[in-house]
Automatic annotation (TrEMBL):
Protein name stated in the entry: Aminotransferase class V-fold PLP-dependent enzyme
Positions annotated to bind substrate: 361
Natural source organism: Paenibacillus monticola
Residues with PTM N6-(pyridoxal phosphate)lysine: 198
Similarity remark: Belongs to the class-V pyridoxal-phosphate-dependent aminotransferase family.
């Protein structure tokens, strides 16, 4: 009989745009005993999680709860629930995850209109608003922080235009939530999807979402109660009921409401992890957390620049939590990444599509976003590049980063 070794994953320094390192307190929370999903102790954990999510999303929305599955499940749940077949959907795309929204909207049977921006930049709000005037969408879906290109899209003006033109505005804030301000109510975002495995630093496996009354009104026109749970007074939904059972938000919200109408079996240990991750985030303070992300980004960028490396993309819309570096000419980017992982235990990311082989992406997210990690990645990258025959000014990178940290203390 084959014998298997004890599971013993290496301790890594993870400097990618997710998944990132997890605070040991979150890991500890995952080891707590299982509670039944209708145990009052568990439902009070559900309610507390909803309360904390409202704070995280900066919203007064009633609905703020996690969908079980990775971030993509939250995106799919929101889109399949709020986009009915035949809806007119505008998707402004400026990287890989905009294409994902396109993909999902098509699968919802929508008439999809796409506008695209060259990777490395974002839209002027006026460009999106002009497209709204010409395509007259009833839904606009776009990404806030594009991890594929390291750019952040300003949303407030687009949100206002969506309200004026009566379109629902769906936003993928998977990469930004907990690391960069996401102002759901102030920016008039109708539905927002966050991620756990990035700036919140909780393992992948849940997708926190929020949506407002405008979104709920549309959802309720598609409401359906599952066969086997219906009572005589509950009517099945309209013809355009949501085509997914697992991702039907009208059913999920009944489960997360005091009704506690049975749906799936909640992911107990993941919910403990999310609750603990949220608790730690709010304990740190959102403003303080955003400032920590800015400081570490500043130190990282100072170090990379001092090393003579060039950053990718339009600096005016750089996403704080992802720094994209152009791979120096003649250098095998994958060989550098392998050496960083194998010799230093540090992981940085490559990229997708047109950027594959051209840039590295370094994340400074959540629990991974710390001074010692930034200094480690700079020192190790310098040594690795020297080993790959790149001539660079030695010893300056870590010093430049230290200067940033020291200036911040003064
Ligand atoms: C901006 C953005 N949206 C969506 C996703 C998809 O998330 P997941 O892989 O957790 O399903 C990612 C993952 O990296 C992302 O960066």
């Amino acid at each position: 009989m084959k014998r298997y070794e004890d599971l013993s994953p290496s301790l890594r320094c993870i400097m990618t745009p997710g998944p990132v390192e997890v605070d040991p307190r979150v890991l500890r929370a995952m080891s707590f005993p299982i509670l039944g999903q209708f145990d009052p102790e568990f439902t009070s954990i559900m309610n507390e999680t909803m309360e904390m999510l409202r704070e995280l999303f900066a919203t007064g929305n009633q609905w703020a709860y996690p969908v079980d599955g990775t971030s993509r499940s939250g995106i799919e749940a929101v889109m399949v629930s709020l986009i009915a077949p035949g809806d007119r959907v505008l998707i402004p795309i400026f990287g890989r995850f905009g294409h994902l929204l396109h993909e999902i909207a098509e699968r919802c049977g929508a008439e999809v209109f796409v506008i695209e921006k060259t990777w490395g930049s974002v839209f002027e709000p006026g460009e999106v608003i002009a497209a709204m005037h010409s395509f007259k969408p009833n839904v606009v879906a776009m990404v806030h922080g594009e991890t594929s290109t390291g750019r952040v899209q300003p949303l407030a003006e687009i949100g206002r235009a969506c309200r004026e033109l009566d379109a629902l505005f769906i936003v993928d804030a998977v990469a930004t939530i907990g690391g960069v301000p996401v102002e759901t109510d102030a920016w008039m975002l109708d539905a927002v999807i966050g991620g756990t495995q990035k700036c919140l630093s909780v393992p992948s496996g849940m997708a926190p979402i929020t949506y407002n009354e405008r979104a709920e009104a549309k959802l309720l026109t598609r409401k359906r109660v599952e066969r086997g749970l219906r009572t005589s007074e509950v009517q099945p939904g309209e013809l355009s009921f949501v085509r997914s059972n697992y991702f039907d938000l009208s059913m999920l919200q009944d489960y997360w409401s005091p009704l506690r109408l049975n749906h799936h079996t909640e992911m107990t240990s993941m919910l403990y992890a999310l609750r603990e991750g949220l608790r730690l985030t709010l304990e740190e303070g959102l403003e303080e957390r955003f400032a920590r992300h800015v400081l570490n980004e500043k130190a990282l960028v100072a170090g990379l620049t001092a090393m003579g490396l060039e950053l990718y993309g339009d600096p005016s819309c750089k996403l704080t939590v992802v720094t994209c570096v152009i791979i120096p000419e003649g250098v095998d980017g994958e060989s550098v990444r392998s050496m960083l992982l194998e010799r230093f235990g540090i992981e940085i990311a490559s990229s997708f599509g047109p950027l594959k082989g051209l840039i590295w992406r370094i994340g400074t997210m959540g629990f991974s976003c710390r001074e010692n990690n930034v200094l480690r990645v700079l020192g190790a990258l310098e040594a690795t590049l020297l080993r790959h025959g790149v001539s660079l000014p030695c010893g300056l990178a870590v010093q430049a980063a230290l200067d940033v940290y020291e200036a911040n203390i003064r």
